[in-house]
Write a structure and sequence with these properties.
By secondary structure, the protein is an alpha/beta fold. Helices cover 18% and strands 41% of the residues. The longest helix is centred in the first third of the chain and has 22 residues.
Length: 120
């Protein structure tokens, strides 16, 4: 009986891991023209992590870092050639010029914190 409970618990943990890393998709936050989106950096995630922006719109992303881990100290937008340091408990604003349609990833230097900017 104990072995059955352990197996069921193990399968539940595996299902949770599969859901969290491969199936779960956070909702998009919609940005409007000349909008500023605040992104919290804490507990191992960017919140929100998916942002939709209309094409040819300038936008400001305000990162607020609460997480003191070394991985959280940078945000990188590889396709945009942006790499910025994020101070703890202070806002860091990154202004983005008008972008072409497409998806632009952003992440920490170890790619543990991940986000996506979707330009439509």
């Amino acid at each position: 009986m104990n072995l059955l409970i352990i197996n069921i618990a193990g399968l539940a943990v595996i299902a949770l891991i599969i859901y969290w890393f491969w199936i779960y998709k956070p909702k998009d936050v919609q940005a409007k023209d000349q909008d500023t989106i605040t992104i919290m950096v804490e507990d191992g995630v960017y919140q929100p992590s998916r942002i939709s922006v209309p094409a040819d719109t300038e936008i400001s992303l305000e990162f607020k870092r609460k997480d003191e881990t070394p991985c959280a100290e940078m945000v990188i937008f590889p396709e945009l050639y942006i790499s910025e340091s994020l101070p703890i408990n202070k806002a860091k604003i990154i202004k983005l010029k008008k972008l072409e349609k497409g998806n632009y990833q952003f992440h920490c230097q170890m790619q543990m914190y991940k986000g996506e900017l979707h330009v439509e």
